[in-house]
Amino acid sequence: MSLGARPSSSPRPRLLDRFRQFLPLSEATPSLSLGEGATPLIRAERLGLTVGAPNLYLKIEGQNPTGSFKDRGMVVAVAKALESGAKAVVCASTGNTSASAAAYGAAAGLEVIVVLPRGQIALGKLLQALAAGARVVAVDGNFDDALRIVRALAEQGEHPVTLVNSVNPFRLEGQKTAAFEVCEDLGRAPDILAIPVGNAGNISAYWQGFREYADAGLADSTPAMWGFQAAGAAPLVHGRPVERPETVATAIRIGAPASWEKAMAARDESGGRIEAVSDDEILAAYRDLARLAGVFCEPASAASVAGVRKMAAAGALDPDATVVAVITGHGLKDPQTAERQVPGVIEAAPTLGAVAVALGWT
Ligand code: F0G
Fold this sequence. Notes:
Layout: H1 15-18, E1 41-43, H2 45-51, E2 56-60, H3 70-83, E3 88-92, H4 96-108, E4 111-117, H5 123-131, E5 135-139, H6 143-155, E6 162-163, H7 169-175, H8 177-186, E7 192-196, H9 201-215, E8 224-230, H10 235-238, H11 260-270, E9 273-277, H12 279-293, H13 299-313, E10 323-327, H14 335-341, H15 352-358
Parallel strand pairs: 2-10, 3-4, 3-6, 4-5, 7-8, 7-10, 8-9
Antiparallel strand pairs: 1-2
Ligand F0G is lined by residues 68, 70, 93-97, 166, 196-202, 251-252, 298, 300-301, 328-329.
């Protein structure tokens, strides 16, 4: 019996190796990977027609190892922390950063400390951090309070600990690699990159990535950056911090983004925009992503598609434009929101007849 030819595909590339020329790595940087990056860019035709963006693509960042885009930056930040001899890392988080820090810290053998706003973290994310052995401290305050605390923790000298929030420059260096992949998969830069905005690190990282790719002569253009915040947590839209941010999209429930200036520069330099979308608009896009594109994401991720729909309805989107919406995190992260958005299970006795009746077939 012949075994036949082996499939010709190459092994899954490691993010640190694949984009080495663009990353601040040295010979001494340890190799680290949980299989991050190389996420799919899919054409979402049915969804695109429904929202008024016929050439809509989705960059599915929920397919990273811990289910969000954070893994791209975390692998670089944790590798560099190891290189510098760190024994512990710390972060504040609305959930995904902590899940990612906990996983990469566990793989690297580092102690991980997480400070979270109490009661405001989606269940899946909290469990990810705890399962990976992170020490999780919940404070009565919001994300902005937690970030203030961990910045101070990283500055005190008694218990040395490296900050791995996106104010750590290695995080943005890693996250920018998603922009390279978008250009590689499309064969060009998109016209518009639509992205949810919370602490504003990711929009800043994508913009850096698109610029570097064009500067290297690998793309002819850069996209307009379209950032979308939740209406109850939209400091960049209002031009001032929001003291009590509120939104169903807990991942982007942030009132004082750390990368404020960088995000504004991304908007202005790219000829883009930063707008607000309501919770209802976010949840409508969240349901449509699953039902019309087969992509189950968390609510914050749907802000990108909600924003595209809103701009299209306002006549601000050229229907010929190639639009990439970044889908930042997986739907299973937040089962409690999902449960409130889906129809109920149909119950029936265990017989063909009863199931047929339940389905309305007879
Ligand atoms: N989407 C998801 C799923 C997120 O978790 C976040 C941020 C964003 C979008 C916004 O990205 O902050 O770079 O503008 N989550 C952070 C966290 C704040 O702690 O997990 P951003």
